[in-house]
Design brief:
By secondary structure, the chain is α/β, with parallel strands linked by helices. It folds into two domains: 156 residues, Ribosomal protein L4/L1 (Ribosomal Protein L4, Chain: A, 3-Layer(aba) Sandwich), CATH 3.40.1370; 41 residues, no CATH class. 35% of the residues lie in helices and 14% in strands. It has a six-stranded mixed sheet. Helix 5 links the parallel strand 4 and strand 5. Helix 4 packs across helix 5.
């Protein structure tokens, strides 16, 4: 099993902890990770884009002038796409972009990402994550000690008053994000350089993906 150091808020080693082998030593499947990422990005699309065709724009339904004898090109309607204010052709209409993916495959993709991040030494485990001074500057100093200038995804095990302060002090930091461990997703796991989590978060992840 993979062992990682458990740090305190000052970045000093307190002890070591073993990572669950069924999650952090899984087979890394790049194709499955890509499929899960594409699915999540597609499902985030609203699909509400809409343009009007020639049957939806306002305008007369008769010919603007007679067919022959005017010296101008024949026209059937001012709703035609070549007219200013006419209907559009082959433009977006409302649609559903959702993609389906079995739950087992989605969770296997998450295990693949976590295994890859562990192999890259991108995991930072804390004995506890408590903010005593609820200020953004204080949280920034703590993150600089733990991860340096790297972007970081903070995984919290539960919602309580202490973790609410962590969220509030991190909310304005552009390179940091707080996420509940039950809401693990492929995009956030791949979008940040480091994963920061208290030891309790490992138990939540194991209960969710184990």
């Amino acid at each position: 099993m993979i062992k990682v150091d458990v740090l305190n808020m000052d970045g000093k080693k307190v002890r070591t902890v073993e990572l669950p082998a069924n999650i952090f030593e899984a087979q890394v499947n790049a194709d499955l990770m890509h499929q899960a990422y594409v699915r999540q990005m597609a499902n985030a699309r609203l699909g509400t884009h809409n343009t009007k065709g020639r049957s939806e724009v306002s305008g007369g339904g008769r010919k603007p002038w007679r067919q022959k004898g005017t010296g101008r090109a024949r026209q059937g309607s001012i709703r035609a796409p070549q007219w200013v204010g006419g209907g559009k052709v082959h433009t977006p209409k409302p649609r559903n972009y959702n993609k389906a993916m079995p739950r087992k495959m989605r969770r296997a993709a998450l295990r693949s990402v976590l295994t890859a991040r562990a192999a890259d030494n991108a995991l930072v485990v804390l004995d506890e994550l408590v903010v005593t001074n609820p200020k953004t500057g204080t949280m920034k100093q703590v993150l600089n000690q733990l991860v340096g200038d790297s972007s970081v995804l903070i995984l919290i095990p539960e919602s309580n008053a202490d973790y609410d302060l962590v969220y509030q002090t991190t909310n304005n930091l552009p390179d940091a994000k707080v996420l509940h461990a039950n809401y693990l997703n492929i995009r956030d796991l791949l979008s940040f350089d480091k994963l920061l989590m208290p030891v309790k978060t490992l138990e939540v992840i194991e209960s969710y993906l184990g």
